[in-house]
């Protein structure tokens, strides 16, 4: 949730690569804004997924107003075949 009068640009990154951008418009007055995105990623052990704030000096409400979550859709078996 963005602060009133403050805009925010954010992106979801996977291993340092941007996969999605989000914008929060903090319209002046008494209105706050929210943003959401749904992304499906193929992840491997050790992969990093993060939310980055693209606006220096801007921020969003913390506590229970902002969250980031994920869950396993399907487990895959990528163990290569043994040859020889």
* Assembly classification: single chain
Low confidence ranges? none
Strand order, biggest sheet?
2-1-3
Radius of gyration: 17 Å
What share of residues is helical? under 10%
Keyword list:
24% strand, 3-stranded antiparallel β-sheet, 84 residues, mainly beta, single chain
Give an account of the 3D structure.
The protein is mostly beta strands and 84 residues long. The chain has a domain at 8-53. Helix content is 0%, strand content 24%. The protein is built from no helices and three strands. It is elongated and about 65 Å long. This is C1q domain-containing protein. It holds the Pfam family C1q. Residues 8-73 form the C1q domain.
Fold topology:
Layout: E1 8-14, E2 17-24, E3 49-53
Outline of this structure?
This protein has 84 residues and is mainly beta.
């Amino acid at each position: 949730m963005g602060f009133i009068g403050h805009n925010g640009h954010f992106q979801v990154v996977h291993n340092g690569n941007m996969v999605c951008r989000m914008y929060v418009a903090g319209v002046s007055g008494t209105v706050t804004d929210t943003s959401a995105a749904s992304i499906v990623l193929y992840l491997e052990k050790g992969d990093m997924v993060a939310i980055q704030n693209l606006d220096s000096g801007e921020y969003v409400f913390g506590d229970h107003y902002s969250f980031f979550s994920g869950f396993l859709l399907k487990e895959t078996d990528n163990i290569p075949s043994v040859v020889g």
